[in-house]
Amino acid sequence: MVREYLLSVVIIILLCTLVGATTFLPQSFDELDKKATHILIGTVVVQKSIQESKVISTETTLHVEEWLKGTSSIQTVIVKEPGGSVGDVLMVVPGSAQFVPGEHVVIFFEANKKTNNNAALTAVLYGHTVGMAQGKFSIQKDKSGTEVLINDLGGAHLLKQVNHEQITLTALRAKYKPSLFRRIIQWMMWVFQ
To answer: Would the pTM of this model clear 0.70, i.e. be above it?
Structure first.
């Protein structure tokens, strides 16, 4: 009996390895928030896959509509995630955040680089989603017309199932909406930048 149990565990482990699935420990909104340097609402503009050595990644450009956490003056963010296609080579990374041009999203973002174009008076923030696909939410309308956040794990599996209540965009905004005093300070920092 023990021998059969151990054999079944070994077979399951081998199958998981062969399938190449990504497994995550589920992260709550609070855990994603703690790890994120920025949280934003934006729209996917364009995607570009690049190959560096033997690794393919996809850079997704987003137009920022609203900052919920982090900077308030930058309007362009580039999210770099593993996977993509270059020529006839396709690299799939289960669990990587997937974006679609025109998609309206909320992302929990970890910035790792900022560039400034002084001639155009623009800045671009580079980074990746927190928790891979766990840090990216599509904004969609439910049957009542309420905007809700939908998370697609991109082929990954959660190590344990968690029952998350569906969160609305309004509730998320309320959680991060700064006070009037903080908004005035942010505006002053932007004006005198």
So the answer is: yes
| Residue 13 within a domain | no
Domain contains 3: no
In a domain, 140, yes or no: yes
SS in 3 state form for 80-128? Answer: EEECEEECCEEECCCCCCCCCCCCEEEEEEEEEEEEEECCCCEEEEEEE
pLDDT band for position 112 (cuts 50, 70, 90): confident
- The verdict on residue 141 lying in a domain is yes
Distance between alpha carbon 160 and the CA centroid of its chain, in Å? 20
User: Tokens 């081998």 — which residue?
Assistant: 14
Whether 81 contacts 56, CB under 8 Å: no
What distance in Å separates the CA atoms of residue 169 and residue 148, rounded to the nearest whole number? Answer: 6
Q: Range of 98's domain?
A: 20-191
Q: How many domains does the chain have?
A: 1
